């Protein structure tokens, strides 16, 4: 998440084409080509209010790999800045199941001798200088 100062109709649908800026072209192109990240900010969510004209704009962008439908992004109340606070709620992830057994390493199931030999041959030996 960040203040990209990027203007593009990808996240500001009513933005005239003439108001797009170079800062907006880069993230929009990246998001269009990305298989792993998507825009989580709702299109048209006002995150900045111009203090003179009182026109809203979407400048704070949230990117992530969580499905957009699972996140909730809203803006908070005015707190003295021309930018509104952005509030993000992610879905709750359940904790791992409780177990009564402590986790431990088991070398019996593997082949520790092969592992040790590979480590020995892949690591250079260090011979300290003789005095």
From TrEMBL:
InterPro entries the record matches: Endo/exonu/phosph_ase_sf (IPR036691)
UniProt xrefs under Gene3D superfamilies: Endonuclease/exonuclease/phosphatase (3.60.10.10)
Highest taxon of the lineage: Eukaryota
The protein's name: Endonuclease/exonuclease/phosphatase domain-containing protein
The species this protein was found in: Portunus trituberculatus
């Amino acid at each position: 998440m960040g203040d990209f100062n990027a203007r593009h109709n990808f996240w500001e649908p009513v933005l005239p084409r003439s108001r797009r800026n170079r800062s907006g072209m880069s993230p929009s192109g990246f998001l269009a080509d990305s298989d792993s990240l998507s825009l989580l900010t709702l299109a048209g969510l006002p995150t900045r209010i111009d203090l003179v004209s009182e026109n809203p704009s979407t400048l704070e962008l949230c990117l992530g790999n969580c499905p957009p439908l699972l996140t909730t992004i809203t803006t908070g109340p005015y707190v003295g800045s021309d930018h509104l606070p952005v509030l993000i709620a992610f879905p709750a992830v359940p904790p791992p199941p409780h177990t009564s057994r402590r986790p431990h390493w088991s070398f019996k199931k593997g082949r520790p001798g092969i592992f040790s030999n590979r480590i020995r041959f892949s690591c250079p030996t260090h011979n300290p200088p003789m005095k």
